[in-house]
Write a structure and sequence with these properties.
heterotrimer; A alpha/beta (449); B mainly alpha (380); C mainly alpha (338); A: 449 residues; alpha/beta; Rossmann fold; five-stranded parallel beta sheet; 13 helices; 17 strands; 36% helix; 18% strand; C: 338 residues; mainly alpha; two-stranded antiparallel ribbon; 15 helices; 4% strand
């Protein structure tokens, strides 16, 4: 039995050498800065001149364009960290420890990988980055399933994971991890942010019909929207689950016509959302009058790339988004300027969140004075920052979720250019979307693995 | 003499075992010597070897073998959750459950032949996938995939008095952690065992009967020979291989997702087998190696890496070469794979193995010429 | 009652699409004996004919938005609109139906090139090799399309006249809620027309007769001194055309993206096999049958009894039919059974 216990302690082979100091690590708060140099951790750059980040994005499959945009943002972030280009948000972020000479004086390099938007492929790619390329941090992805899978792996490997696009409550709820951090908002916040706007626009006497993608993200989104709208006094006529990738949604849309509902809430994302929205519009839902009210469609989660795919169907439709390039603030300005100059078009919300995540990680290392993950994690936890496009933001320590203003947007009826697809309807202040971390359960797990 | 000894089972097994176990060394030059990819080679190798027992010997093209892989994975993770983090029960249960699952699906599907059989297996696998992704979420944890949790009972571990860890426990073989290189060697050991069984089957009267079914089932039936038990057993055996491969995926990385059962996953093993060479012992393994290598290494090459690789060239030429190569790596790795499929099958009917055989024949001819003109010392 | 009626319409509409895709596939698969995994890619190429045509029509004059300084944002006005005003606008509005004229020669050409350049050499190879080569081809086609058009779907709109819904209910004296999009009705009519045209072509022309004879017994037909090979090329081109047309007309229903072919591939194989190998009629019947059953299975009343039934109905029906009828609905003995 005692033999087994020892092996449990040694469960990470790279930690074998530090097994003796393992006990001390349980009370590392009393350690002073610099003492961590003695701690061994995976892929410690040591005295090397450079460090590596792993950019794990979908390069093939339905989200390939989103992945490509994420990659652009990452490359830009690396440039700025290394002091190349115009510096982007390094000029606006505060508090900031970064000096534009890499991180802790080490030049930032990167490796890329293809998640294929599949958990297995994403984990394989992340493992390659950790085992072969020796990365210190992994970031990226464009679906919650993948984010949760990679986050779990990173916890085991002791490598910090800064998520890309993931909107499910579970990422920082039920499945939260000590080594995972999310800048993106979540389904719960979408619901909370949309609530007041829906009330103002559509009143309190509405009957809602939900079409929901039949998997975890869809369910959490549906639950959040249901809670929000029912609190406004709306009735939920029906919630219907649709298979992922159904393509043609006509058989789910036609029953809406007869249901007596006057609002359709589409808890779909990506291709599903583009298809279902287009088809709902074809069935004349947007022009319908039910119960003496104009029929409305709501898409809780929007992105500009999706708006592009949905074409005219998106016009006038309300939804929420993490960030939009048309926001008027210094951070947004700085980022859009350098991204636009580099690539000739504005960044998407995916690009923004990925760029910010990279900077936040780098800044935390710089501030902590070490790459030792537990210490970097502690620095990120409850970190308050500003000047990154979303106003003052808190990285809550209890669940590693960022709290910031949420945007309620509307598909722009009269775009002035090809990029002017979403109009910011309202910036919902952070205080309106905050919640108690305990409502979603989950455990972060240990600092030291 | 040499020919004879080369064909004996134990020589083949010895060579095979040495080649597999030294993989971390000889895969170093091509950058494939890290644990995860090595594990994937071994796991999918096992999957493809098993698949080849059905497809290669009997000619029955199953388009639903990923279902058994998925079932194996789910069973293994449940074994980790409920019983023990030890991998032995996980592998055994996966073998058993996937076997039963294969028996049920095989029993029904084998009532038909040809394309009808293929579509039946495809239908069963797709149904498993769809249900696992959505309504069966309580058992499979849907999209997110089945994971370990701190609250899992792990009855056997609790009885054995294994101390709870602060984080999630690791899979182990009586204390030896199954991630990294130890994980690879465990997979490699099972691959070698699997290869041995496959070799035995290929060279047994049973294997001959299966091949006879492939060449002419009708004639077999007319001679009063009942082919069903043979087909069904081959189907179940190959399903069990897939189940064990699925278990190994969970052993090296305890997470099981529904997408493992999707038709694309079934299609992948079909492609691997055909690419390498249907019905050959080694072919499927080559197919696995090629596809997994492209998926993991080619997809990771980016503009920056290419510039480093071609930095020796003059600037203008470098940029040209990089911009052309870039189309085929990174996000373009699918294009490379597609092109490769076409080239292989156009020029090498019979897959990569055909190419290897041709090379060996050519090599032998050259050696033969040399031998006849000079000494006969080779014949020892 | 309304609900059932409208689901029948949905089913017929879906069925029309399935039947059309399966018809092309079964021409190549059931009659030439080629397992064509690139058939989905042909469907996708058809949809992208519509996209290309629309993009050419809407080549625009770009007026820079002066308020945006970091990059160039444009307000785009198609030249056709500038030159011809309303006429130009009307032409753009009809982009999808007009692109059929563009798609016909393109798809026929693609079909001929594919058959002459590749498929021809694979008639005598094993099915396994056919799968590998056509799958490889499908990936290559997909990736080429992606490099030009990106991975994001590109929405196409139906002409404004038919963008709305037809009030079927009030026309028949039923509920006002019984409406159905015009474009989907047109798609149904279009698919029926194409199906009848193909059948008529094979049944009433000498060419068709020879092809059918060739399917039944290729050797005898070639012994008669008829150039079967040439006719097979035409049949393959016809299959490509049918798939392409299905894609063109589907563009306003499903915004095309480079991966849409793969999404339809498995489904179309299931439809063909359920219909029975070597039977065009079977493929069409199976297409409509599966379409209608899928629509019914999605009804809330049915889903509440059997949860998740809409996810698996197609495969469940396929299993049942193949077990009850060994060669699908109307399959011929001995085709692709070994």
């Amino acid at each position: 039995m005692s033999k087994k216990q020892t092996t449990q302690q040694q469960r990470r082979d790279f930690l074998k050498a530090s097994a003796a100091t393992g006990v001390a690590a349980s009370v590392p708060l009393i350690f002073s800065k610099g003492a961590y140099a003695a701690e061994k951790f995976r892929n410690d750059p040591g005295t090397g001149k450079s460090i590596k980040f792993g950019f794990n994005v979908p390069q093939t499959g339905a989200y390939a364009d989103e992945g490509a945009d994420e990659l652009r943002a990452y490359k830009l972030a690396v440039k700025h960290l290394n002091g190349e280009g115009d510096g982007g948000m390094l000029n606006t972020m505060k508090p900031m420890s970064l000096k534009g000479n890499g991180v802790l004086g080490k030049k930032v390099e990167y490796v890329t990988g293809d998640t294929q938007t599949k958990s297995d492929a994403a984990r394989a790619s992340a493992k390659r980055m950790i085992e072969k390329d020796g990365v210190l941090m992994i970031t990226g992805g464009s679906s919650s399933g993948v984010a949760i899978a990679v986050q779990g792996l990173c916890q085991e490997m002791g490598t910090i994971f800064m998520t890309g696009l993931t909107h499910s409550n579970d990422t920082t709820g039920k499945d939260k991890k000590r080594y995972g951090f999310r800048h993106m908002f979540n389904a719960y916040m979408s619901g909370r942010a949309l609530g007041p706007v829906l009330e103002k626009e559509y009143g309190t006497e509405r009957r809602a019909y939900h079409l929901t993608a039949d998997y975890t993200w869809g369910w959490t989104q549906e639950q959040s929207m249901k809670d929000t709208t029912e609190a406004l006094g709306w009735k939920t006529v029906k919630t219907v689950r649709t298979p992922v990738g159904a393509g043609d949604f006509s058989q789910y849309i036609t029953p809406v016509l007869n249901s007596g509902a006057d609002v359709l809430i589409l808890n779909h994302y990506g291709k599903d959302m583009i298809n279902s929205l287009n088809q709902a519009v074809q069935f004349g839902l947007k022009d319908k009058v039910v119960n003496g009210k104009q029929f409305e469609i709501v898409v809780p989660l929007f992105s500009r790339l999706m708006a592009q795919g949905a074409g005219d169907a998106i016009k006038g439709i309300l939804g929420s988004t993490n960030w939009n390039w048309q926001l008027k603030n210094a951070g947004t300005n700085a980022f859009v300027k350098s991204f636009g100059a580099e690539y000739g078009f504005p960044p998407s919300q995916a690009a923004h969140t990925c760029y910010v995540q990279t900077l936040l990680y780098a800044n935390a290392c710089e501030q902590a004075g070490t790459f030792y993950p537990p210490e970097v994690i502690r620095t990120l936890e409850d970190f308050i920052f500003d000047g990154m496009g979303n106003g003052e933001t808190l990285y809550r320590g209890a669940d590693h979720q960022c709290f910031k203003d949420v945007l309620v947007v509307r598909g722009n009826p009269n775009p002035t250019s090809q990029f002017d697809l979403l109009k910011v309807e309202q910036v919902v202040p952070r205080s309106k979307v905050e919640y108690d971390p305990s409502i979603f359960g989950g455990e972060l797990g240990p600092y030291k693995v | 003499m040499m020919k004879l000894s080369l064909k004996s089972n134990w020589v083949i097994m010895l060579v095979f075992a040495v080649v597999v176990l030294t993989a971390p060394l000889w895969l170093t030059p091509i950058g494939a010597n890290y644990p995860d990819l090595l594990q994937k080679f071994a796991i999918f190798g096992l999957f493809a070897i098993g698949y080849n027992i059905l497809f290669g010997l009997t000619g029955y093209l199953s388009f639903g073998h990923a279902a058994f892989l998925g079932v194996g994975s789910y069973t293994a993770v449940w074994s980790f959750k409920l019983l023990s983090m030890n991998v032995i029960p996980a592998v055994l249960f996966s073998l058993l459950v996937s076997g039963v699952f294969a028996l049920l699906i095989g029993y029904v599907s084998l009532r038909r032949t040809g394309i009808y059989f293929s579509i039946l297996t495809l239908a069963f696998a797709q149904m498993s996938y769809s249900l696992a992704y959505s309504v069966l979420t309580p058992i499979t944890n849907g999209e997110t995939g089945l994971q370990l949790s701190l609250q899992d009972p792990r009855v056997l571990d609790a009885m054995a008095g294994v101390a709870k860890t602060e984080g999630l426990p690791s899979t182990n073989l009586f204390g030896q952690i199954m991630s990294g290189y130890p994980g690879f060697y465990f997979c490699a050991a099972l691959l070698i065992i699997g290869f041995y069984i496959s070799l035995k089957i290929f060279r047994s009267p049973y294997g001959l009967k299966l091949m006879a079914i492939k060449s002419n089932q009708t004639r077999m039936k007319y001679t009063g020979f009942n082919t069903r038990p043979y087909l069904l057993s081959a189907f179940v055996i190959s399903g069990m291989y897939a189940g064990v491969a699925g278990a190994l995926m969970a052993v090296t990385d305890p997470l099981a997702g529904a997408e493992r059962m999707q038709w694309t996953a079934s299609g992948e093993v079909v492609l691997m087998t055909i690419l390498g060479g249907v019905g050959t012992l080694i072919g499927p393994l080559l197919g696995v190696g090629i596809i997994k290598y492209f998926e993991n290494i080619f997809s990771a090459l980016n503009e920056k890496v290419l510039h480093e690789v071609f930095s020796a060239l003059p600037d203008g030429l470098e940029n040209l070469v990089v911009s052309v190569t870039e189309l085929f790596v990174g996000e373009g790795w699918h294009l490379t794979l597609g092109t490769l499929f076409m080239l292989v099958v156009i020029f090498l009917p019979g897959g990569v193995m055909e190419g290897v055989t041709r090379l060996i024949t050519a090599g032998k001819r050259m050696l033969g010429i040399r031998a006849s003109s000079g000494s006969a010392g080779d014949e020892k | 009652m309304d609900a059932i009626l409208i689901q029948i319409l949905n089913g017929l509409d879906k069925g029309g699409a399935y039947a059309l895709i399966a018809l092309g596939l079964t021409l190549a698969f059931g009659t030439l004996g080629v397992v064509n995994f690139a058939h989905g890619a042909l469907f996708m190429l058809g949809a992208f004919c519509a996209v290309t045509f629309q993009q050419v029509l809407t080549i625009s004059k770009k007026v820079k938005d002066p308020s945006i300084t970091f990059f160039d944002a444009y307000k785009e006005t198609p030249y056709l609109e500038i030159w011809w005003g309303d006429t130009g606008r009307a032409i753009i509005d009809y982009a999808v139906p007009l692109s059929i004229l563009f798609a016909i020669p393109v798809m026929l050409l693609i079909g001929v090139i594919m058959e002459r350049g590749l498929i021809k050499y694979f008639y005598k190879r094993t099915h396994a090799e056919q799968i590998l080569v056509t799958f490889g081809l499908a990936i290559v086609i997909q990736e080429i399309v992606r490099s030009f058009f990106g991975a994001n779907p590109l929405p196409q709109s139906a002409p404004a006249v038919v963008a709305g819904s037809a009030a079927i209910g009030s026309a028949l004296g039923l509920s006002d809620n019984l409406v159905y999009p015009w474009w989907r009705l047109i798609y149904l009519g279009f698919s029926l027309a194409v199906i009848f045209a193909v059948f008529a072509f094979l049944k009433y022309t000498t060419f068709g007769m020879v092809v059918r004879a060739g399917m039944a017994d290729r050797e005898t037909v070639s012994l008669l001194g008829i150039n079967v090979q040439k006719r097979f090329t035409i049949v393959f081109a016809l299959a490509a055309l049918v798939a392409g047309l299905a894609g063109v007309m589907y563009a306003p229903i499903l915004p095309p993206d480079y991966h849409m072919g793969m999404d339809f591939l498995v489904l179309s194989f299931v439809v063909v096999v359920v219909g029975g190998m070597g039977s065009l009629g079977g493929a069409v019947a199976a297409g409509f049958l599966l379409g209608i059953l899928q629509s019914f299975a999605s009804m809330n009343e049915i889903k509440s009894i059997i949860p998740g039934i809409d996810q698996i109905i197609i495969y469940l029906v396929a299993v049942v039919i193949l077990l009850v009828r060994p060669r699908g609905l109307m399959g011929r003995e001995g085709v692709m059974e070994d």
